[in-house]
Amino acid sequence: MALPSRLVYDCLVIGAGIQGSFTAYHLAKNGKRTLLLEQFPLPHSRGSSHGQTRIIRRAYEEEFYTNMMVESYQLWAELEKEAGITLYRKTGLLFFAPSDNEEYESVCKNMEHHKFPWENLTQEQLKAKYPGFVLNPGEAVCLDYDGGVLSADKALRAVQEQFQRMGGLIQDGERVKHIQPGQVVTVTTTADSYQAENIVITAGPWAQKVLSPLSLELPLRTLRINVCYWKEKIPGRSGLLQNFPTFLRVVPDGEIYGLPCREYPGLIKICYHGGNEADPDERELQTKPPQIPDVQILCDFVSKYFPGLHPKPAVMEQCMYTSTPDHNFILDYHPLHKNIVIGSGFSGHGFKLSPLVGKILSELSMGKKPSYDLTPFSIARFKKASL
Q1: What is the H or E stretch that residue 69 is in?
Q2: Which residue from 70, 95, 182, 266 has the highest number of Cβ atoms inside 10 Å of its Cβ?
Q3: Residue 82 falls within a domain, yes or no?
Q4: Is residue 56 part of a domain?
Protein backbone atom coordinates (compact mmCIF):
# COMPACT_ATOMS: atom_id res chain seq x y z
CA MET A 1 0.00 0.00 0.00
CA ALA A 2 1.37 3.43 -0.92
CA LEU A 3 2.56 5.59 1.95
CA PRO A 4 0.90 9.04 2.21
CA SER A 5 2.68 11.74 0.23
CA ARG A 6 2.71 14.11 3.24
CA LEU A 7 5.25 11.83 4.90
CA VAL A 8 8.79 13.27 5.08
CA TYR A 9 11.10 10.62 3.66
CA ASP A 10 14.68 10.17 4.75
CA CYS A 11 15.63 10.21 1.08
CA LEU A 12 13.97 10.56 -2.29
CA VAL A 13 15.78 9.26 -5.38
CA ILE A 14 14.89 10.76 -8.77
CA GLY A 15 15.38 8.29 -11.63
CA ALA A 16 14.86 4.53 -11.41
CA GLY A 17 17.54 3.43 -13.83
CA ILE A 18 20.23 1.08 -12.58
CA GLN A 19 22.16 3.81 -10.67
CA GLY A 20 19.11 5.24 -8.93
CA SER A 21 17.69 1.81 -8.17
CA PHE A 22 20.93 0.66 -6.52
CA THR A 23 21.10 3.95 -4.58
CA ALA A 24 17.58 3.38 -3.23
CA TYR A 25 18.46 -0.27 -2.49
CA HIS A 26 21.48 0.72 -0.36
CA LEU A 27 19.51 3.43 1.45
CA ALA A 28 16.76 0.94 2.33
CA LYS A 29 19.42 -1.52 3.44
CA ASN A 30 20.60 1.12 5.89
CA GLY A 31 17.12 1.51 7.30
CA LYS A 32 16.29 4.75 5.50
CA ARG A 33 12.70 5.43 4.51
CA THR A 34 13.19 5.88 0.78
CA LEU A 35 11.04 6.84 -2.20
CA LEU A 36 12.22 6.03 -5.74
CA LEU A 37 10.63 8.23 -8.43
CA GLU A 38 10.53 7.38 -12.14
CA GLN A 39 9.02 9.55 -14.87
CA PHE A 40 8.00 6.64 -17.15
CA PRO A 41 5.88 3.57 -16.34
CA LEU A 42 8.18 0.67 -15.48
CA PRO A 43 9.69 -1.17 -17.23
CA HIS A 44 10.62 1.13 -20.12
CA SER A 45 13.30 1.53 -22.79
CA ARG A 46 13.66 5.32 -22.89
CA GLY A 47 16.85 5.73 -20.86
CA SER A 48 20.23 4.01 -20.52
CA SER A 49 19.54 0.90 -18.41
CA HIS A 50 17.32 -1.25 -20.63
CA GLY A 51 18.31 -4.21 -22.80
CA GLN A 52 19.38 -7.77 -22.16
CA THR A 53 23.15 -7.44 -21.86
CA ARG A 54 26.00 -5.25 -20.59
CA ILE A 55 29.76 -5.89 -20.33
CA ILE A 56 31.44 -6.40 -16.98
CA ARG A 57 35.23 -6.25 -16.75
CA ARG A 58 38.17 -5.57 -14.50
CA ALA A 59 40.30 -4.32 -17.41
CA TYR A 60 40.40 -0.52 -17.07
CA GLU A 61 42.97 2.08 -17.99
CA GLU A 62 42.22 4.12 -14.86
CA GLU A 63 43.40 2.42 -11.69
CA PHE A 64 40.59 3.90 -9.61
CA TYR A 65 38.03 2.03 -11.75
CA THR A 66 40.09 -1.18 -11.63
CA ASN A 67 40.16 -0.84 -7.84
CA MET A 68 36.42 -0.15 -7.64
CA MET A 69 35.61 -3.22 -9.71
CA VAL A 70 36.84 -5.47 -6.88
CA GLU A 71 33.89 -4.49 -4.70
CA SER A 72 31.52 -4.19 -7.67
CA TYR A 73 31.97 -7.90 -8.44
CA GLN A 74 31.31 -8.67 -4.77
CA LEU A 75 28.14 -6.57 -4.70
CA TRP A 76 26.81 -8.19 -7.88
CA ALA A 77 27.33 -11.59 -6.25
CA GLU A 78 25.55 -10.35 -3.13
CA LEU A 79 22.51 -9.28 -5.17
CA GLU A 80 22.49 -12.63 -6.99
CA LYS A 81 22.42 -14.43 -3.63
CA GLU A 82 19.67 -12.22 -2.20
CA ALA A 83 17.49 -12.50 -5.31
CA GLY A 84 18.26 -16.17 -5.98
CA ILE A 85 19.09 -15.56 -9.65
CA THR A 86 22.14 -15.48 -11.93
CA LEU A 87 23.07 -12.07 -13.35
CA TYR A 88 26.74 -12.52 -14.30
CA ARG A 89 28.03 -14.92 -16.95
CA LYS A 90 31.80 -15.25 -17.29
CA THR A 91 32.98 -15.25 -20.91
CA GLY A 92 36.37 -13.55 -20.68
CA LEU A 93 37.06 -10.11 -22.14
CA LEU A 94 39.56 -9.43 -24.91
CA PHE A 95 41.20 -6.00 -24.96
CA PHE A 96 42.68 -5.14 -28.38
CA ALA A 97 44.97 -2.21 -29.21
CA PRO A 98 48.06 -1.25 -31.20
CA SER A 99 51.03 -2.84 -29.44
CA ASP A 100 52.48 0.54 -28.38
CA ASN A 101 49.17 1.93 -27.12
CA GLU A 102 49.38 3.66 -23.72
CA GLU A 103 45.85 2.66 -22.74
CA TYR A 104 46.68 -0.98 -23.39
CA GLU A 105 49.84 -0.75 -21.30
CA SER A 106 47.89 0.83 -18.43
CA VAL A 107 45.25 -1.91 -18.56
CA CYS A 108 47.92 -4.62 -18.34
CA LYS A 109 49.73 -2.79 -15.55
CA ASN A 110 46.55 -2.45 -13.49
CA MET A 111 45.58 -6.08 -14.00
CA GLU A 112 49.04 -7.21 -12.95
CA HIS A 113 49.13 -4.86 -9.95
CA HIS A 114 45.86 -6.27 -8.59
CA LYS A 115 46.90 -9.84 -9.44
CA PHE A 116 43.71 -10.44 -11.39
CA PRO A 117 43.67 -13.48 -13.70
CA TRP A 118 44.80 -12.24 -17.11
CA GLU A 119 47.35 -12.87 -19.86
CA ASN A 120 48.65 -11.53 -23.15
CA LEU A 121 47.66 -13.72 -26.11
CA THR A 122 49.58 -14.47 -29.27
CA GLN A 123 47.82 -14.75 -32.63
CA GLU A 124 47.93 -18.53 -32.35
CA GLN A 125 46.51 -18.53 -28.81
CA LEU A 126 43.75 -16.16 -29.86
CA LYS A 127 42.72 -18.35 -32.78
CA ALA A 128 42.77 -21.45 -30.60
CA LYS A 129 40.60 -19.91 -27.88
CA TYR A 130 38.31 -17.78 -30.03
CA PRO A 131 37.97 -18.86 -33.67
CA GLY A 132 36.76 -16.12 -35.98
CA PHE A 133 38.72 -13.29 -34.36
CA VAL A 134 41.48 -11.71 -36.46
CA LEU A 135 44.56 -10.09 -34.89
CA ASN A 136 46.31 -7.81 -37.35
CA PRO A 137 50.09 -7.14 -37.51
CA GLY A 138 51.29 -4.62 -34.93
CA GLU A 139 48.40 -5.33 -32.56
CA ALA A 140 48.31 -6.74 -29.06
CA VAL A 141 45.51 -8.44 -27.15
CA CYS A 142 45.13 -9.38 -23.51
CA LEU A 143 42.49 -11.54 -21.89
CA ASP A 144 40.69 -10.50 -18.71
CA TYR A 145 39.52 -13.92 -17.57
CA ASP A 146 36.77 -12.56 -15.30
CA GLY A 147 35.24 -10.35 -17.98
CA GLY A 148 31.75 -11.28 -19.00
CA VAL A 149 28.12 -10.33 -19.44
CA LEU A 150 25.54 -8.90 -17.06
CA SER A 151 21.84 -9.53 -17.66
CA ALA A 152 20.74 -5.90 -17.65
CA ASP A 153 16.92 -5.96 -17.57
CA LYS A 154 17.02 -8.88 -15.15
CA ALA A 155 19.42 -6.98 -12.88
CA LEU A 156 17.31 -3.83 -12.87
CA ARG A 157 14.21 -5.81 -11.98
CA ALA A 158 16.06 -7.72 -9.23
CA VAL A 159 17.44 -4.65 -7.47
CA GLN A 160 14.06 -2.90 -7.59
CA GLU A 161 12.35 -5.98 -6.14
CA GLN A 162 14.91 -6.21 -3.32
CA PHE A 163 14.44 -2.50 -2.59
CA GLN A 164 10.68 -3.01 -2.28
CA ARG A 165 11.14 -6.09 -0.10
CA MET A 166 13.09 -3.91 2.32
CA GLY A 167 10.17 -1.49 2.55
CA GLY A 168 11.11 0.93 -0.22
CA LEU A 169 8.42 2.59 -2.32
CA ILE A 170 8.54 3.09 -6.11
CA GLN A 171 6.32 5.67 -7.79
CA ASP A 172 6.55 5.43 -11.57
CA GLY A 173 4.83 7.42 -14.32
CA GLU A 174 5.55 10.69 -12.48
CA ARG A 175 7.79 13.32 -14.08
CA VAL A 176 9.43 15.83 -11.77
CA LYS A 177 8.11 19.35 -12.40
CA HIS A 178 9.79 21.30 -9.59
CA ILE A 179 12.34 20.85 -6.80
CA GLN A 180 12.24 23.29 -3.91
CA PRO A 181 15.52 23.13 -1.91
CA GLY A 182 15.54 23.63 1.83
CA GLN A 183 16.16 21.80 5.08
CA VAL A 184 13.36 19.59 3.84
CA VAL A 185 13.31 19.30 0.05
CA THR A 186 9.94 19.39 -1.71
CA VAL A 187 9.64 17.53 -5.02
CA THR A 188 6.56 18.23 -7.11
CA THR A 189 5.67 15.77 -9.86
CA THR A 190 2.97 15.55 -12.49
CA ALA A 191 0.88 13.56 -10.00
CA ASP A 192 1.78 14.58 -6.44
CA SER A 193 4.17 16.38 -4.11
CA TYR A 194 6.72 14.72 -1.83
CA GLN A 195 9.07 15.84 0.94
CA ALA A 196 12.43 14.39 1.95
CA GLU A 197 15.33 15.37 4.14
CA ASN A 198 17.70 14.40 1.31
CA ILE A 199 17.35 13.75 -2.40
CA VAL A 200 19.59 11.97 -4.90
CA ILE A 201 19.31 12.93 -8.58
CA THR A 202 20.11 10.04 -10.95
CA ALA A 203 18.08 11.22 -13.90
CA GLY A 204 20.28 9.81 -16.69
CA PRO A 205 19.84 11.66 -20.00
CA TRP A 206 17.40 14.06 -18.29
CA ALA A 207 19.91 15.10 -15.62
CA GLN A 208 20.61 18.54 -17.04
CA LYS A 209 16.89 19.26 -17.43
CA VAL A 210 16.42 18.46 -13.74
CA LEU A 211 19.55 20.34 -12.60
CA SER A 212 19.16 23.56 -14.61
CA PRO A 213 16.25 24.88 -12.47
CA LEU A 214 18.51 24.27 -9.46
CA SER A 215 20.96 26.80 -10.95
CA LEU A 216 23.56 24.20 -11.88
CA GLU A 217 24.87 23.77 -15.41
CA LEU A 218 27.18 20.79 -15.91
CA PRO A 219 29.09 19.89 -19.11
CA LEU A 220 26.87 16.90 -19.86
CA ARG A 221 26.18 15.65 -23.39
CA THR A 222 23.28 13.33 -24.13
CA LEU A 223 24.19 10.99 -26.97
CA ARG A 224 22.06 8.76 -29.18
CA ILE A 225 23.82 5.41 -29.55
CA ASN A 226 23.27 2.98 -32.38
CA VAL A 227 23.18 -0.54 -30.93
CA CYS A 228 24.06 -2.89 -33.79
CA TYR A 229 23.67 -6.65 -34.19
CA TRP A 230 25.53 -8.70 -36.82
CA LYS A 231 24.83 -11.99 -38.57
CA GLU A 232 27.16 -14.74 -39.77
CA LYS A 233 27.54 -15.04 -43.53
CA ILE A 234 27.18 -18.81 -43.25
CA PRO A 235 25.44 -19.83 -40.01
CA GLY A 236 27.76 -21.88 -37.82
CA ARG A 237 30.77 -21.57 -40.16
CA SER A 238 32.73 -18.78 -38.42
CA GLY A 239 32.77 -20.42 -34.98
CA LEU A 240 32.05 -17.06 -33.36
CA LEU A 241 28.68 -17.93 -31.88
CA GLN A 242 29.91 -21.03 -30.06
CA ASN A 243 32.41 -19.25 -27.81
CA PHE A 244 32.13 -15.50 -28.25
CA PRO A 245 33.74 -13.42 -25.46
CA THR A 246 33.18 -9.78 -24.68
CA PHE A 247 35.77 -7.46 -26.22
CA LEU A 248 37.02 -3.88 -26.42
CA ARG A 249 39.11 -2.56 -29.31
CA VAL A 250 40.84 0.83 -29.18
CA VAL A 251 40.28 2.71 -32.46
CA PRO A 252 41.60 6.15 -33.49
CA ASP A 253 38.49 8.04 -32.37
CA GLY A 254 37.36 5.91 -29.46
CA GLU A 255 36.51 2.28 -28.78
CA ILE A 256 34.45 -0.50 -30.30
CA TYR A 257 32.99 -3.19 -28.09
CA GLY A 258 31.20 -6.49 -28.58
CA LEU A 259 29.51 -9.20 -26.58
CA PRO A 260 27.46 -12.36 -26.98
CA CYS A 261 23.89 -11.57 -27.89
CA ARG A 262 20.86 -12.72 -25.92
CA GLU A 263 18.50 -10.20 -27.47
CA TYR A 264 18.59 -11.84 -30.92
CA PRO A 265 19.67 -15.52 -31.06
CA GLY A 266 22.11 -16.11 -33.89
CA LEU A 267 23.40 -12.52 -33.91
CA ILE A 268 26.40 -10.81 -32.27
CA LYS A 269 26.28 -7.39 -30.62
CA ILE A 270 29.08 -5.04 -31.80
CA CYS A 271 28.81 -1.28 -31.14
CA TYR A 272 30.74 1.97 -31.31
CA HIS A 273 31.39 3.51 -27.88
CA GLY A 274 29.97 6.95 -28.49
CA GLY A 275 27.32 8.66 -30.55
CA ASN A 276 25.71 11.86 -31.71
CA GLU A 277 24.07 14.48 -29.54
CA ALA A 278 20.33 14.25 -29.15
CA ASP A 279 17.58 15.56 -26.92
CA PRO A 280 16.38 12.61 -24.78
CA ASP A 281 12.77 13.68 -25.36
CA GLU A 282 13.37 13.46 -29.11
CA ARG A 283 15.37 10.26 -29.00
CA GLU A 284 13.85 8.67 -32.09
CA LEU A 285 14.12 11.82 -34.21
CA GLN A 286 17.15 12.55 -36.40
CA THR A 287 17.04 16.34 -36.11
CA LYS A 288 20.48 17.05 -37.61
CA PRO A 289 23.15 15.21 -39.62
CA PRO A 290 25.29 12.86 -37.47
CA GLN A 291 28.71 14.22 -36.54
CA ILE A 292 30.14 10.73 -36.00
CA PRO A 293 29.67 8.20 -38.83
CA ASP A 294 29.56 5.42 -36.26
CA VAL A 295 27.70 2.83 -38.33
CA GLN A 296 30.18 3.13 -41.20
CA ILE A 297 33.07 2.84 -38.74
CA LEU A 298 31.50 -0.37 -37.45
CA CYS A 299 30.97 -1.77 -40.95
CA ASP A 300 34.64 -1.20 -41.78
CA PHE A 301 35.69 -2.72 -38.46
CA VAL A 302 33.57 -5.86 -38.87
CA SER A 303 34.91 -6.38 -42.40
CA LYS A 304 38.47 -6.22 -41.11
CA TYR A 305 38.25 -8.13 -37.84
CA PHE A 306 35.33 -10.52 -38.35
CA PRO A 307 35.35 -11.72 -41.95
CA GLY A 308 32.81 -14.40 -41.07
CA LEU A 309 30.13 -11.77 -40.37
CA HIS A 310 28.05 -9.78 -42.82
CA PRO A 311 29.62 -6.28 -42.99
CA LYS A 312 26.23 -4.57 -42.57
CA PRO A 313 24.20 -4.74 -39.34
CA ALA A 314 21.21 -7.07 -39.37
CA VAL A 315 19.40 -5.12 -36.62
CA MET A 316 19.87 -1.58 -35.29
CA GLU A 317 18.37 -0.18 -32.08
CA GLN A 318 19.02 2.95 -30.06
CA CYS A 319 20.10 3.79 -26.54
CA MET A 320 21.17 6.98 -24.73
CA TYR A 321 24.43 7.89 -23.00
CA THR A 322 25.04 10.89 -20.77
CA SER A 323 28.72 11.78 -21.12
CA THR A 324 31.16 14.09 -19.35
CA PRO A 325 34.21 15.62 -21.10
CA ASP A 326 36.60 13.18 -19.38
CA HIS A 327 34.14 10.24 -19.46
CA ASN A 328 34.32 9.93 -15.67
CA PHE A 329 31.21 9.94 -13.51
CA ILE A 330 29.78 12.76 -11.40
CA LEU A 331 29.28 11.64 -7.79
CA ASP A 332 28.99 14.74 -5.64
CA TYR A 333 26.85 17.14 -3.64
CA HIS A 334 25.13 20.09 -5.24
CA PRO A 335 27.55 22.99 -4.53
CA LEU A 336 24.84 25.05 -2.79
CA HIS A 337 22.64 22.34 -1.28
CA LYS A 338 24.38 19.61 0.69
CA ASN A 339 21.22 17.54 1.02
CA ILE A 340 21.02 17.21 -2.78
CA VAL A 341 23.35 14.53 -4.17
CA ILE A 342 24.05 14.09 -7.89
CA GLY A 343 24.95 10.89 -9.74
CA SER A 344 25.36 11.51 -13.46
CA GLY A 345 27.61 11.35 -16.52
CA PHE A 346 28.09 7.58 -16.56
CA SER A 347 29.34 7.88 -20.14
CA GLY A 348 28.27 4.46 -21.35
CA HIS A 349 30.38 2.41 -18.91
CA GLY A 350 28.57 2.80 -15.60
CA PHE A 351 26.32 -0.26 -15.53
CA LYS A 352 29.01 -2.66 -14.28
CA LEU A 353 29.85 -0.27 -11.43
CA SER A 354 26.24 0.51 -10.47
CA PRO A 355 26.12 -1.56 -7.23
CA LEU A 356 29.09 0.41 -5.92
CA VAL A 357 27.91 3.73 -7.33
CA GLY A 358 24.63 3.22 -5.50
CA LYS A 359 26.52 2.51 -2.29
CA ILE A 360 28.63 5.67 -2.70
CA LEU A 361 25.63 7.89 -3.48
CA SER A 362 23.79 6.48 -0.46
CA GLU A 363 26.83 7.25 1.73
CA LEU A 364 26.84 10.86 0.51
CA SER A 365 23.12 11.15 1.14
CA MET A 366 23.49 9.78 4.69
CA GLY A 367 26.41 12.11 5.46
CA LYS A 368 28.88 9.26 5.78
CA LYS A 369 32.48 9.36 4.65
CA PRO A 370 32.57 7.84 1.14
CA SER A 371 34.24 4.46 0.77
CA TYR A 372 36.45 5.80 -2.05
CA ASP A 373 38.32 8.94 -3.01
CA LEU A 374 35.77 10.86 -5.08
CA THR A 375 38.19 13.44 -6.50
CA PRO A 376 37.89 11.98 -10.05
CA PHE A 377 34.12 12.36 -9.78
CA SER A 378 33.83 15.85 -8.30
CA ILE A 379 31.89 18.72 -9.86
CA ALA A 380 34.83 21.02 -9.07
CA ARG A 381 36.93 19.40 -11.82
CA PHE A 382 34.78 21.19 -14.40
CA LYS A 383 35.85 24.80 -14.74
CA LYS A 384 32.72 25.53 -16.77
CA ALA A 385 30.26 24.22 -14.20
CA SER A 386 28.16 27.29 -13.48
CA LEU A 387 25.86 28.28 -10.65
Answers
A1: helix 63-83
A2: 95
A3: no
A4: no
